[in-house]
């Protein structure tokens, strides 16, 4: 049986249903619905050929070519679906809910699958995701200079059941010029937005949503404009941590990274760091004086943070002394402070 369903209704199903994206591997890699698996009707090359035939010859010729290309594949499509969904309950979509998903839904239904065909396909999901960015959320930012331990605290808050959006985790980047850590690979902008929307959909609008204070750009990715504008006007708790503690934390985090990687990243901020400071920082890296390297680059990052902080209205800014406190104790203190902060919309 094939059931036509909107993506919004699909998210509300009270039974687990796997989701098959029948677009090409290239389309899937560029952006897909989180949790979906790729069951491509056409290869990347085949889709180009079919599309060209559609434009140059016509719809019927393209459909016939599609059947020629997929004819030997149908049994394999079903086997692949069975590997992922042995219980034979599956959602299916393509780009716009057209022929590709319709053909796959027909074959799976014929074999005995319970099929949910997503109306509007992936395009409808993108509209759904973008609409989520336009909604208002009770954001509370956690700020602090580089090395203040904001990410650790957010994870502790999440473990306590608090609503947390970890933008750096979704972006697979730690925000600074060194944020790839020489190993993290960022998703596409589209996939970053897809993952972010999937986190936002579960947020209770009556409860605080914790977000780390970020610049709009996280590596090569950007926070969607509507959400970013909310962040700029949200209230913030600023962690006060002494420089030596921050340096020690950053040395532990970055000090073992490849020296050539650190040098290359330092070169990329030469204009902002200044030629003398850049030269000294690179020398410190080469000589494994990591605390001195961190100290030098923090001059730039601390200055940037202070400038950002100065633009925050006084009634939106709340400070907390985070010196010499364990993460759990600090998270508890932050929660207690958040109770005293006027709530969203007040």
Order of helices and strands: EHEHEHHHEHEHEHEHHEEEHEHHHHHEH
CATH architecture field of the largest domain: 3-Layer(aba) Sandwich
CATH-defined fold name of the largest domain = Rossmann fold
Q: How many structural domains in the coordinates?
A: 2
> Treating each run of at least 4 consecutive H or I residues as one helix, how many helices?
17
Shape: elongated
Largest sheet: 5 strands, parallel
Strand order across the largest sheet: 1-5-4-2-3
Helix content: 40-55%
Q: Could you tell me the number of beta strands?
A: 12
Spans of 5+ residues with little confidence (pLDDT < 50)?
none
What is the overall pLDDT average? 94
Output the structural class. alpha/beta
Radius of gyration in whole Å, from Cα? 25 Å
First-residue to last-residue Cα separation: 50 Å
Our estimate of the beta-strand percent is 5-15%
CATH structural class of the largest domain: Alpha Beta
């Amino acid at each position: 049986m094939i059931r036509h369903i909107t993506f919004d209704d699909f998210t509300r199903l009270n039974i687990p249903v796997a989701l098959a994206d029948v677009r090409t591997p290239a389309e899937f890699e560029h952006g897909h619905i989180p949790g979906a698996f790729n069951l491509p009707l056409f290869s990347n090359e085949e889709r180009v050929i079919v599309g060209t035939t559609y434009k140059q010859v016509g719809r019927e010729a393209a459909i016939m070519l599609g059947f020629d290309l997929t004819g030997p594949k149908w049994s394999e499509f079903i086997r692949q679906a069975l590997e992922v969904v042995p219980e034979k309950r599956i959602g299916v979509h393509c780009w716009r809910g057209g022929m590709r998903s319709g053909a796959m839904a027909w074959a799976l239904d014929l074999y005995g699958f319970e099929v949910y065909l997503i109306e509007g396909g992936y395009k409808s999901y993108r509209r759904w995701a973008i609409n989520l960015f336009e909604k208002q959320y009770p954001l509370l930012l956690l700020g602090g200079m580089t090395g203040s331990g904001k990410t650790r605290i957010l994870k502790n808050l999440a473990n306590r059941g608090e609503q947390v959006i970890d933008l750096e985790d979704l972006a697979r980047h730690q925000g600074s010029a060194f944020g790839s850590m020489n190993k993290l690979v960022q998703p596409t902008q589209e996939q970053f937005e897809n993952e972010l929307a999937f986190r936002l959909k579960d947020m209770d609008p009556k409860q605080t949503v914790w977000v780390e204070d970020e610049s709009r750009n996280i590596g090569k990715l950007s926070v969607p404009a509507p959400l970013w504008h909310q962040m700029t006007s949200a209230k913030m708790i600023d962690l006060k941590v002494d420089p030596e503690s921050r340096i020690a934390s950053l040395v532990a985090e970055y000090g073992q990274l490849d020296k050539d990687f650190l040098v290359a990243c330092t070169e990329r901020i030469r204009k902002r760091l200044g030629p003398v400071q850049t030269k000294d920082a690179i020398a410190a890296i080469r000589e494994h004086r990591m605390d001195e390297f961190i100290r030098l680059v923090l001059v730039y990052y601390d200055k940037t943070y202070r400038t950002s902080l100065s633009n925050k209205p006084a009634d939106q800014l709340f400070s907390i002394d985070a010196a010499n406190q364990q993460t759990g104790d600090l998270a508890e203190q932050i929660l207690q402070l958040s109770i005293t902060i006027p709530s969203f919309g007040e």
